[in-house]
Specification:
This protein has 213 residues and is of the alpha+beta class. It is built from five helices and nine strands, in the order ββαβββααβαββαβ. The mean pLDDT is 95. The structure holds FE2/S2 (inorganic) cluster.
Length: 213
């Protein structure tokens, strides 16, 4: 049976979406850009970690993450208000304040989700209001296929999900707060983990943290 459709309005444009779809996918499918780093379409429970997809919805007091809010018939969504931009910009600066900004030497240069976000929203990559607190964590280059640089990781969790989906389930979040990293089970180097070498984690990484050698 075909899935029911609903109509909503995003930035004044009427959009048709599948009932139960999240606002983020409805917008992107309609060609309306909403920045996002941690959203995965096939994942049942959105992580809502990056906070870049915040939108305003008529009748709601707070800003809402578009990746976790299902569309409703007649819903009125705005992605480009002053309030959205102010809070989204702060979320972006927070991310960039501990990101090793080294685009010229980064394999992902030109196809990085951070560059795309900055370019589309006219943000600077280097935060202007927050101090830079880049960590200097060791790069894991133990694996013959790919490397992991935690200093470029945005903790979107896509690699953890991809590793789970592949059946290996070797990647996880470790530690808390500012110390959070993506780690193998037991913190062993990638080559000593149960990695099967599918490199799905590299495919989904939106930045230059996991790259092929
Ligand atoms: S994409 Fe929605 S919180 Fe990251």
């Amino acid at each position: 049976m075909a899935q029911a459709k609903v109509k909503l309005t995003i930035n004044g444009q009427e959009v048709e979406a599948k009932s139960g779809d999240m606002i983020l996918w409805a917008a992107l499918d309609a060609g309306i850009f909403i920045p996002n780093l941690c959203a995965i379409r096939d994942k049942d429970h959105p992580q809502t970690g990056c906070r870049l997809c915040l939108v305003e919805i008529e009748g709601y007091d707070k800003l809402i993450t578009a990746c976790s809010e299902p569309v409703i018939k007649g819903m009125v969504v705005k992605t480009n208000t002053e309030r959205v931009d102010r809070i989204r910009h702060t979320a972006f600066e927070l991310l960039m304040s501990n990101h090793n900004i080294d685009c010229k030497n980064c394999v992902q240069n030109g196809s990085c989700a951070l560059q795309e976000t900055a370019s589309k929203l006219k943000y600077k990559l280097k935060p202007e209001r927050l101090p830079s607190i880049v960590r200097s964590l060791p790069i894991d280059d133990s694996h013959p296929l790919f490397t992991y640089d935690p200093n470029k990781c945005v903790l979107c969790g896509k690699c953890v999900w991809a590793c789970e989906q592949s059946g290996a389930g070797e990647l996880q979040f470790a530690f808390r707060g500012i110390d959070t990293v993506i780690s193998t089970l037991g913190g062993v180097p990638l080559v000593q983990s149960g990695c099967k070498g599918c490199a799905d984690c590299v495919t989904v990484c939106p930045v230059g943290a996991l790259v092929l050698r």
